[in-house]
Specification:
This protein has helices at 2-15, 51-59, 61-65, 116-121, 150-176; strands spanning 22-26, 30-36, 39-47, 71-74, 81-85, 92-100, 104-110, 123-131, 137-144. By secondary structure, it is an alpha+beta fold. The chain has a single domain (23-176), classed as Alpha-D-Glucose-1,6-Bisphosphate, Chain A, domain 4 (2-Layer Sandwich), CATH 3.30.530. The longest helix is centred in the last third of the chain and has 27 residues, at 150-176. The protein is globular, with a radius of gyration of 16 Å.
Length: 183
C-alpha cells in the first residue's frame, strides 16, 4: 500500500508546476528514488523483523554491530554520535539531530572521506520506522541537503549505491536470522 501511495505522490508531483524529476531504481529488496527538484535520495526496505528489534539495530551498539560494522558508537541523545567503524577507514555515520523512539532517527550524515567538502558540510539523513504487522518493519531513509558542484554530484552517485548496500545488509541480517560475524 505504501508503495502505491509513494507512486501516486510522484505522479501528482510530476503533473504540478516545477515538476519533480525522479528516477526509481530497485535492488533485491530496496526501492530507491532519485529526485532532482529538490535534490534528494529516498530508500525503502521492508525488514523481516519487529519494529522494536529493528529500532534496536539502529540505536544500540550491539544492534549496529550485528549488521552494519564491526565497531559502532551510539549516543542516543541530540548531538550524540551515531558512528560505524571499519578497520582501515575513517568513521562513517554522523550525529543525531533528533529521535522519537521506534519512529524517527535524524542524523547529520558524514559522507565518506573521499568527499571532504560533503563530509564537512554534511547532509541530513532521516530514517523513519513503521511496523508492518508484528513481524515486519518498513524502514525509509530520506537524504536531503544536497548542494551543487562536482564533488556533491559524485557523493550523490556514490551514496545512491552505498546506502542501498547499507539497507540490503540490514535486510540480510534479519532475513538470515543471525548477526554478521566480522572476524
Amino acid at each position: 500500500m505504501k508503495k502505491i501511495l509513494w507512486a501516486a505522490a510522484l505522479a501528482a508531483a510530476a503533473l504540478s508546476p516545477g515538476a519533480l524529476c525522479a528516477k526509481v531504481l530497485h535492488s533485491a529488496h530496496v526501492t530507491i528514488v532519485q529526485s532532482d527538484q529538490p535534490k534528494r535520495l529516498d530508500w525503502e526496505v521492508t525488514v523481516p523483523a519487529s519494529l522494536g528489534v529493528v529500532w534496536d539495530a539502529f540505536t544500540t551498539q550491539a544492534g549496529m554491530t550485528s549488521w552494519l560494522a564491526p565497531r559502532a558508537t551510539v549516543e542516543l541523545v541530540p548531538g550524540g554520535a551515531w558512528r560505524a567503524q571499519f578497520p582501515g577507514y575513517a568513521e562513517a555515520g554522523g550525529n543525531i539531530v533528533v529521535f522519537q523512539p521506534d519512529t524517527l532517527l535524524v542524523l547529520t550524515a558524514m559522507a565518506p572521506e573521499q568527499f571532504p567538502t560533503v563530509r564537512r558540510e554534511r547532509t541530513l539523513a532521516v530514517f523513519t520506522f513503521t511496523a508492518h504487522g508484528d513481524a515486519e518493519t518498513v524502514v525509509h531513509l530520506a537524504q536531503t541537503g544536497w548542494k551543487d558542484g562536482p564533488e556533491w554530484e559524485r557523493a550523490y552517485a556514490y551514496l545512491t549505491t552505498g546506502n542501498t548496500q547499507l539497507l540490503e545488509a540490514l535486510y540480510t541480517r534479519f532475513a538470515g536470522g543471525q548477526p554478521v560475524k566480522w572476524n
